[in-house]
Amino acid sequence: MVSLYQFNDKEICKELLLNQSISLLYRFESFEVDSKIIAILDISNYGISSGNSLIIHEKFGVFFDIRTTKELINEFYKLNGIGFAMSKAIYALFNFRHYMPFVFAYVSYMPMTGGSRNSSDWVGLHYIETYYQDNKSAYFTTVHGYKIKLNFPHGNLENRIHDVCMISEKSVSLCKILLQGGMMDLNPPSNTGMVRKHENCKCNKHQSLIQNTLKVDETTDRIIDYILIHLEIENLEAKELMKLYRYNLNKLKRLH
């Protein structure tokens, strides 16, 4: 991670980046969202002409992007083709309501604030080694040893990370089952950061996770049901129409 060498002895935060270190930054005109993003910082209210977001990237270092963090995070569908659909469906299984993460197997991005209609700071937990909360800030150390400070105005950081990791576990288990059907294995990367930190947790939420470990066909059916319900079909035949969609989707699973 040579591209972040200039921050070796510094705590990376908005104040540092937009003041004494702004000359070290650049604007990446053609950046394509990928899973090597460590964190995305919202600067849309700072009046910076160079961009609306700061991206901390494993390969490219720190740079400006003209898109808002909301626009960037919505492009995560390019990582898996389905974007937040799996995260939302799994989230709904546990009746979680707020702070929707982007989770796909071992890739997990957590928002620092709620409100899906607004821009927020995001952090990739698969790049985080340690963390702690102090007042209204969250402090992270990456697997590379870099320190990042983000605003965290509400909530308990430990609980928030726990819940995202739990959703990741469910995503991983589903991916494993799908691959096993094709005689393949899902092997984690050499370093998964925080993502596997709570695998041996015995809390009530994790007991619920175990109880909700469904067969692959049941899980995919639950995801399909979730998507159909949230299409918000509004007409007199909505129930019949959803039944037809569900029937046709199930037909796609079969040869004839």
Overall geometry comes to: globular
- Mean pLDDT, to the nearest integer, reads 83
Number of strands: 11
Strand composition percent: 15-25%
Q: Which regions are unreliable across 5 or more consecutive residues at pLDDT < 50?
A: none
Largest beta-sheet characterization: 7 strands, mixed
Number of domains: 2
Plain-language structure description:
The structure is a single chain. The longest helix is centred in the middle third of the chain and has 24 residues, at 157-180. The model has no long low-confidence stretch (mean pLDDT 83). α4 (85-93) packs across α7 (216-229). The termini are far apart. This protein has 256 residues and is an alpha+beta fold. It has helices at residues 14-18, 69-73, 77-80, 85-93, 157-180, 204-211, 216-229, 238-252, and strands spanning 11-12, 26-27, 37-42, 53-57, 61-65, 102-104, 107-111, 122-124, 128-134, 137-142, 147-151. The chain is built from eight helices and eleven strands. It has two domains: 2-164, no CATH class; 214-256, no CATH class.
